[in-house]
Design goal:
single chain, alpha/beta, Aldehyde Dehydrogenase, Chain A, domain 2, seven-stranded mixed β-sheet, six-stranded mixed β-sheet, 39% helix, 22% strand, aldehyde dehydrogenase (NAD+) activity, metal ion binding
Length: 495
């Protein structure tokens, strides 16, 4: 049965006035699962107006009161984890083994973190005694109406990463999900309302890039938080800068994994596989450039090939499945194009996978399935090494010298993530200190808990999300100097 998804503002579902809609498709079988109503400019205006009307009351509510409401939303999210995870699986194609243990769970963790943070004094300012009769105090004040633009790879998680600190700080939000994975947005809005979030505090508009562009350039919007590809992020950031809006940009990466000569080969392979094949490679922090010592290359590849059989494509609602399809037909063709380029133009050696269609998955014919692919004997100049593929495509490169490996790892305009595998923790810290990336791991890959502030360097983004630092992205500072001397200093006095 094809469901209908609507807009959400003023605390309830709203029909769109554009007269246009689009379909959400299950990537596993290419069958439509929802008809989604697309917002018109007047619909966006109405949602922004709703958020602006709600802001004075919500922002003046004591932080502990906001915290209690948001913690109720956390409870509802956890109670509905299975239902929401199934919805995410059908919308994204990611296996239920992932969506049920990562997507909703970690999103709820972030909401809980920020609710507790503001409830425990996280919005407190500072005081400084200047002299006996004068002092300075600061306040952290909310920004106003904020726009959240979601991505398709972690829909509900990203929606919570944006809305949690936004709402906890006292702001209101108009959120636009990706048109490829839109189903979560209305569900989240309904959960917030059920928890007691007042009407207008969290609102949803649906649509493609034109809707997002109109929302982010809206004069009432004080901040734009965007997650997506670099080229789109630059356009959004440019438009926001023209309106002097605050921004948070979480963009793409082409992240390196450095395997040190002393690393445990099995552990290094496990890390590389998580960094390339988890979520079918559709993760912005993927470590797709795997730099291996030349002397370890044969052992690394042997161990990797032995573990490729552990990647299990199958029914996405089967808990034993750990590898799903790509998110859409458009993205499927893009990834296949890169794989073919790696074979036919770059001339990399294909170690596993390839562009051929994998064996059909039972009851899921017609989906956007691709083989997990590994290229070896790669060079830094290859297109598959230089550009973000956003699919399950690993490239293996070799090095002779650690300093050389670090230099090559940093030779990219992107700087989202990086990691090192070694038994020598002193070496690990030295290597990580040299990496030009905002998110780094040692002897692991991919975990991003609520307590960990994350954000890209260089062209991979602006600002951070999560952690205590993440709250600062949703407030503005006000400093006040109080003089109690009874005398106003002035240079304009009689000589």
């Amino acid at each position: 049965m094809v469901q209908t998804r609507q807009l959400y503002y003023d605390g309830r579902s709203k029909a769109a006035t554009s007269g246009h809609s689009f379909q959400s498709v299950n990537p596993a079988n290419a069958q439509p699962i929802a008809e989604v109503l697309s917002a018109s400019a007047s619909d966006v205006d109405a949602a922004v107006k709703s958020a602006a009307s709600a802001f004075p009351t919500w922002s003046k509510m004591p932080a502990i009161a906001r915290s209690r409401i948001l913690l109720k939303a956390v409870s509802i999210l956890r109670e509905r984890n299975e239902e929401l995870a199934i919805q995410e699986t059908q919308d994204t194609g990611k296996p239920i083994s992932e969506t049920s243990t990562v997507d909703v769970v970690t999103g709820a963790d972030v909401l809980e973190f920020f609710a507790n943070l503001v409830g425990g004094g996280g919005l407190n300012g500072e005081t400084a005694q200047l002299r006996e009769d004068a002092w300075v105090y600061t306040k952290k004040e909310p920004l106003g109406v904020c726009a959240g633009i979601g991505a398709w790879n972690y829909p509900i998680q990203i929606a919570l990463w944006k809305s949690a600190p936004c709402l906890a700080a006292g702001n209101t939000m108009v959120y636009k999900p990706s048109e490829f994975t839109p189903l979560h947005a209305q569900s989240l809005a309904e959960i917030y309302s059920a928890a007691g979030v007042p009407p207008g505090v969290f609102n949803v508009v649906q649509g493609a890039g034109d809707v997002g562009a109109y929302l982010t350039s809206h004069p009432t919007v004080a901040k734009v938080s965007f997650t997506g590809q670099v080229s789109t992020g630059k356009k959004v950031a440019s438009a926001a800068a023209g309106g002097m809006k605050y921004t948070t940009m979480e963009l793409g990466g082409k992240s390196p994994i450095l395997i040190m000569p002393d690393a445990d080969v099995e552990q290094a392979v496990d890390g590389a596989m998580m960094a390339n094949f988890f979520s079918t490679g559709q993760v912005c922090t993927n470590g797709t450039r795997v730099l291996v010592p030349k002397k370890m290359k044969a052992a690394f590849e042997k161990a990797l090939l032995a573990k490729m059989d552990f990647i299990r494509a199958g029914d996405t609602l089967d808990m034993e499945t750990n590898f799903g399809p790509l998110v859409s037909e458009t993205h499927y063709q893009k990834v296949l194009g890169y794989i073919r380029h790696g074979i036919e133009v770059d001339g990399a050696r294909l170690l596993a996978g390839g562009a051929e269609r994998p064996a059909p998955v039972k009851n899921m014919d017609g989906g956007f399935w691709v083989r997990p692919t590994v290229f070896t004997d790669c060079t830094d100049q290859m297109k598959i090494v230089q550009e973000e593929i956003f699919g399950p495509v690993m490239t293996i490169l070799t090095y002779d010298d650690i300093d050389e490996a670090i230099s090559r790892a940093n030779a990219t305009p992107l700087g989202l993530a990086a990691g090192v595998f070694t038994k020598d923790l002193n070496l690990a810290h030295k290597v990580i200190a040299e990496m030009e990336a905002g998110i780094t791991w040692v002897n692991t890959w991919g975990e991003s808990p609520a307590e960990m502030s994350v954000g890209g360097w260089k062209q991979s983004g602006l600002g951070v999300e999560n952690g205590r630092k993440g709250l600062e992205a949703w407030v503005r500072n006000k400093s006040t100097l109080v003089d109690m001397s009874g005398v106003v200093p002035t240079v304009f006095s009689k000589l």
